[in-house]
Amino acid sequence: MEKIVITGGAGFIGSHVVDRILSANKRVGVLDNLSTGRKSFIQKHLENPAFEFHKVDLVTERIERYFEHASEVWHVAANPNVREYDADIYEAQIKMTLNVLEAMRKRDVKKIVFVSSSTVYGEAIKRGKIEPTPEDFPTVPISLYGASKLACESLIEAYSHVYGLQCWILRLANIIGPRLTHGAIFDFVEKLRKNPNELEILGNGEQKKSYLYVDDCVDAMLTAREKSNERVNVFNVGNEDWITVREIAEIVCKIMNLRPRFRFTGGDRGWRGDVPLMLLDITKIKRVGFSPRFTSREAVEKTVKYLVESGAPENSRF
Length: 318
Description:
Helix content is 34%, strand content 19%. The protein is globular. Strand 1, helix 1 (12-23) and strand 2 (27-32) form a beta-alpha-beta unit. It folds into 2 domains: 3-174 and 212-237, Rossmann fold; 176-209 and 241-310, UDP-galactose 4-epimerase, domain 1 (Alpha-Beta Complex), CATH 3.90.25.10. The strands form 4 sheets. It has a 7-stranded parallel sheet with strand order 3-2-1-4-5-6-11, sandwiched between helices. Strands 12-9-14 form a 3-stranded mixed sheet. The protein has a two-stranded parallel ribbon with strand order 7-10. The protein has helices at residues 12-23, 87-106, 144-163, 184-194, 214-227, 245-256, 283-287, 296-310; strands spanning 3-7, 27-32, 51-55, 72-75, 111-117, 166-172, 174-176, 198-201, 208-209, 211-213, 232-237, 243-244, 261-264, 277-278. The chain has 8 helices and 14 strands. It is of the alpha/beta class. The two termini are 29 Å apart.
């Protein structure tokens, strides 16, 4: 049975990838240090003989043995906090990717799927000129998060050419859905639980971005992996529409049946390095067979309902 190694497999997106790959009758080995992942997300698989979990630090520990007999790697592990300014975190992210690539080289694993981000493009869309951003647009990140993702992309492409790897680089829009543990929607729900009378909104609320439901995201990732076969395959993964932060806040309030006062922090973005306008061109991935089932608004509504009804966040990571 084919074995797939998934880094960050106990995280939000990673755990959904685990679910789908196991359902395809493949063995899965998850590597996760549980710093942001939660073991509860993969709890149902722990007794599955086709599944193995290793709590391991990809930056500091020797990891080659976990790649033995693997046919490919899905490198999903990352620090998901795009607002973080600590360079050490993103240095570690690059080191982690290098360690994964070295482990693949030493164990002769030739295929890698890498979860990148729309943040590698930086401010591709300017106000007054709204055009979706294609894969060949210049990559000029304006955040440490985006810069580290782009650096990881470069390492993977270099290893592909030097050591004969084949790679799929997936630049994701905002992905939301069950098991979400961060981001504006998650923050809004948590803030309103603490204070139902006022909601702080970072920026002016006019930031506008594309959101994709996590089931659609995994569909897109699998489609890109299965339907493209170049040495280096780069795809945008997102939706065809977008929604403002204010609209998201209004949806959250409606579903929670609250009417708080909105308090905006001001400015055209939520934090230094925030990209206020983001809409990816998904023409390329649509050509190979992917089409999102849910709009950005529908994805937001489904996610808010999940967070409210489930009582998330789940406190236990272990």
